[in-house]
Amino acid sequence: MSNRLAQEILWKAIVKNAKYKTKGTLISFLKEIYIFQSLSDWQIARLSNFLYKRVYEVGEYIFEAKHPGAALFLVQKGEVDIEISKNDQNYTIATIREKECLGDMSLVDKSERSAAARVKKRAIVYALHRKDLERMLYTDPDIAAKVYRSLAGLIAERLKSMNDLFEKNDLGNSNEFQSAG
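^ that's the sequence the OP posted. Answer follows.
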């Protein structure tokens, strides 16, 4: 039996075992996140070992604009507003809800955050750090490649949406944006 097949059988047993209910719940949550939908259960279980959980309260920032980006965040519960600042005014450009992710660009480049993420409703959030995904390129290249491929699709989709929005409206005069200040 190949090592990969043995790992898959082992992880399937772990996911089904009642002693690992918390791990199974996390895996179920991760399977609903777009960038992980191409992964098998055992690959998601393996990836989950690299996640860090944190609870954020209303008004707390997960990250701020112009700060270095180093992690992708997955919202299990709650809501998070994505805010940009223009002319000393904050605008909410998106609201991230349960089973959605934010900070995706930080996994592909090391630039500053282009927006801030402020908690709108108390949130349970998991973080996947760039250094951990980069490490997986060597330890679990199949998993890392699938995540990067899905991430590229997500970023392209978001870029197209923003381009469509900017084409329709000038940011400063847009009714699409809500003041967050």
